[in-house]
Amino acid sequence: MGMNISSGDEEQLNSTINTTPLVDVMLVMLIIFLITIPVVIKTVQVDLPNVSNTPTQTKPENIVIAVTKDGEYYWNEARVADKAALLAKLKTIAVINPQPEVHIRGDLNGRYEHVGRLVLYCQRAGISKIGFITIPVR
């Protein structure tokens, strides 16, 4: 609120409200909302799968590869010496017709890197069916 005091003439007091600061604040708030609302609303549109936990049928030709928390691989309960031997074994079963499924059992406390590396080896060998063995949630 502005006020003009003069000693000469008797002028009236300026009793109007100065709205400039109010307009400045409102414009700043409007700009902030215009910038932040699209960031909050934008998400990547993805169709999420509907998952049903069906028990797997264990077949004798299926291969179960277990991955321990230390990154060791076990081929049907037999330890695989190194990663080159694992890749060689995977390449030998990849040419079998019909191709057997590879079931991966990863340790809960293990690093995902070891399981991911096993999936990569399966892809390099040409294995088309890979499954993960988990404990069903009740």
UniProtKB/TrEMBL annotation:
Domain of life according to the entry: Bacteria
Gene Ontology terms: cellular component: plasma membrane
Membrane-spanning residues: 21-41
Pfam families, A to Z: ExbD
Membrane topology summary: Single-pass membrane protein; Single-pass type II membrane protein
GO biological process: protein transport
GO MF terms, alphabetically ordered: transmembrane transporter activity
Gene3D superfamilies xrefs: 3.30.420.270
Keywords: Cell membrane, Membrane, Protein transport, Transmembrane, Transmembrane helix, Transport
Cell location: Cell membrane
Family recorded in the similarity comment: Belongs to the ExbD/TolR family.
Protein name per UniProt: Biopolymer transporter ExbD
Provenance organism: Cellvibrio mixtus
Source lineage: Bacteria, Pseudomonadati, Pseudomonadota, Gammaproteobacteria, Cellvibrionales
